[in-house]
Amino acid sequence: MAEATASATGEELRVAVDGPVATITLDRPDALNALTVRLREGLLRAIRRADRDPAVRAIVLTGAGRAFCAGQDLKERLEPDAAALETELRERYNPLVLAMRESDTPIVGAINGVAAGAGASLALACDLLVIADGASIRLAFGRIALVPDSGATWLLPRLIGPSRAAAIALLDEPITASGAVDLGLAVKAVPVADVLAEAQALAARLATFAPRALALTKRALHHAQDATFTDTLEYEAVIQGIAGRTRDHQEGIAAFLEKRPPAFTGD
Q1: What confidence score (pLDDT) does residue 240 get?
Q2: Nearest-10 Cα torsion for 243, 249, 252, 256
Q3: Model confidence pLDDT, tens digit, residues 1-25
Q4: Mean pLDDT, rounded, for 36-64
Q5: Cα 32 to Cα 71: distance, rounded to the nearest angstrom
Q6: DSSP class per residue in 60-79
Q7: Where are the beta strands (DSSP E) in 6-94?
Q8: CATH of 2-206, one of 3.10.20.30, 3.10.180.10, 3.90.226.10, 3.40.50.720
């Protein structure tokens, strides 16, 4: 395993690359991996770097210690030079969740503990989730008289429906591990000791598929969120044409006919 540490002026963020899987770990366990300016900037760079690396075919995002991410570091908000909230969102949070959603590389969240506030938004921005028993996803913005942000008001209703999203957002109801599975937010709930390994196994499985086809599938799913059925049919035709011209498509056909596993290269 090759391991590199991506750190922005002192904030810890570990990036480990094992074959085609990059694992990004928020590493402020004493602060429940609360997000500072430096940590957000480091995470954005790490996501973009992994997405640009042709050797990386799947990304795992997790937290060190007993939390996934407790959201914004509130102590930082009390500093005299803290940016206005709208500036913070536009310049740091929004680019981060956009990078996650627009990444061609699938992102698997390993939710090892509480994901609250903006940490919940990071979890929702992943493509697939594995959650630990006892972990929870909680917007928690109402506790400090704020509004869900970082894409949460767009993502949550589309993932679980508007009525359930309203109950969670307005009543500050936590989503338990079993609830996340029942709602379709998480693929599975597992013991906390197994959550990272399960997420990495899922990422390794994703890495066996054709990277271009996965990227196009992500784009199609996102496009369909706001498109009409007719527009979606046309979009599918366009991207299917792109996928059909790849070498990986030819390899997939050959492997099927020859009754062997395909060896996709990303071409």
Answers
A1: 94
A2: 100
A3: 344 443 333 458 999 999 999 999 9
A4: 95
A5: 9
A6: EEEESTTEEE--B-HHHHTS
A7: 13-18, 21-26, 58-63, 67-69
A8: 3.90.226.10
